[in-house]
Design brief:
Blueprint (H helix, E strand, L loop, with lengths): L12 H11 L7 H14 L3 E5 L2 H11 L7 E5 L4 H8 L4 E5 L1 E2 L4 E2 L12 E7 L8 H10 L3 E5 L7 E2 L2 E2 L6 E5 L12 E5 L5 H7 L6 H5 L19 H11 L2 H18 L1 H5 L4 E2 L6 E2 L5 E4 L3 H13 L15 H6 E3 L6 H5 L2 E4 L7 H15 L1
Parallel strand pairs: 2-3, 2-6, 3-15, 6-7, 7-10
Antiparallel strand pairs: 1-11, 4-5, 8-9, 8-13, 10-11, 12-14, 14-16
Helix pairs in contact: 1-8, 2-8, 3-4, 9-14
Length: 375
């Protein structure tokens, strides 16, 4: 069986974990946390980066920093993972779902402004598969209406939009280092800032609402509870594991981009014959090869193809069920205007295996099985 995903191992993780053992410091805010944050800031060219214990918790911190309260509205796509909405629903916000652009599966930037009301507090964009949303227009809208702009760049470490790294364009960026991502720490994440006005409070929120880091730096004579917060810290063991991955991120991303291109080349004849549609990458976007998907005629054809691939020892799968159609989505949000593409295109979407050690001959086997289905 060719699995859908095999988490990356660089071979250097154990070396750094042994260093943590030698230092006898295992909780957050140790030397590997610092090394990871400094490297992320350097690589992504952002003002500040803090590690979190998941991408979900990065989003939850973002909701706190945006001062989301009961009755506020947050605009986002419905085609995303529950964490994107849950982070804001936890604080009483109403989620306003907006339709997607089917060519990228990202929020349609042309529909955002019409969804804004006097209760709107923030816009959350999701860079699906590491292909960037149209950030120039979305930034313009957010500034015009004085809204907090949050990037869910969970899948997008080191992906770009017009030479800027995703997660560093809005007010707050959220990254995931879950084992399904290009690089990972098992569970983990990061929150990014270009606006340093937010970083002092972020440092407090992730430390249970305490100003302990100020105490460590000698800025106060004792630390105390000063704000809301939780324990969002990543352990040193996870940070050491992550550091081994971060220093190999370009190698990991480049291999996945090559696999993506091989898939696209192998399936080009099916696209030309109008049998399938594959992901569209705008010229000004540079994704990191996080996933490869294509779209079938309809949900019935997709499900039959998944079964066909399984019979050929290939694990393929669909992706998100739109949040607005879920029980929680109906309870905590509503779809703004027409769902023209979100549901219809999500039901056509099929993802093929994508991981660092996927061999060229395995990609050929997978695409030959797809072509056999359509023949």
């Amino acid at each position: 069986m060719i699995p859908f995903n095999i988490p990356l191992l660089t071979g250097e993780e154990i070396k750094f974990i042994k260093q943590v053992n030698a230092l006898n410091k295992f909780s957050g805010e140790g030397s590997f946390n610092s090394k990871c944050c400094e490297l992320i800031k350097l690589e992504l060219q952002c003002k500040e980066a803090f590690l979190t214990s998941s991408g979900t918790q990065a989003l939850e911190m973002a909701a706190m920093l945006a001062n989301i309260k009961t009755g506020d509205e947050v605009i986002m796509p419905s085609f995303t993972f529950p964490s994107s909405a849950n982070a804001f629903a936890l604080h009483g916000a109403k989620i306003v779902f907006v339709d997607i652009d089917p060519s990228t599966m990202n929020i349609d930037e042309n529909l955002i402004e019409n969804a804004i009301s006097e209760k709107t507090k923030a816009i959350l964009v999701v860079h699906y598969g590491s292909v960037a949303c149209e950030m120039d227009k979305i930034v313009e809208i957010a500034r015009k209406h004085k809204l907090v702009l949050i990037e869910d760049a969970a899948q997008a470490y080191k992906a770009k939009y017009k030479d800027r790294f995703l997660g560093t364009i809005g007010d707050i960026g959220c990254i995931s280092f879950h084992e399904t991502k290009n690089i990972h720490s098992g569970e983990g994440g990061a929150i990014l800032f270009n606006n340093t006005a937010l970083t002092e409070r972020a440092e407090i929120i992730r430390e249970k609402g305490c100003n302990r880091n100020k105490f460590y730096r000698g800025e106060v004579d004792k630390y105390t509870w000063v704000d809301i917060g939780s324990s969002f810290l990543l352990s040193e063991l996870n940070a050491a594991f992550l550091y081994a991955q971060l220093i190999n991120a370009d190698i990991a991303n480049n291999r996945r981009r090559n696999i993506f291109q091989q898939y696209a080349n192998n399936l080009a004849e099916l696209v030309k014959a109008n049998k399938i549609d594959i992901a569209q990458i705008p010229a000004h976007c540079e994704p990191n090869g996080h996933l490869f998907y294509f779209k079938t005629k309809d949900i019935s054809e997709r499900d039959k193809l998944i079964k066909h691939l399984k019979a050929n020892d290939i694990q393929a799968c669909f992706h998100y069920v739109p949040l607005h159609s879920s029980p929680a989505g109906k309870r905590f949000g509503s779809f703004h205007n027409e769902d023209k593409y979100t549901t219809a295109d999500s039901e056509r979407l099929l993802r093929l295996p994508m991981f660092f050690k996927l061999k060229d001959k395995e990609v050929d086997k997978i695409t030959n099985a797809v072509k056999k289905f359509y023949s």
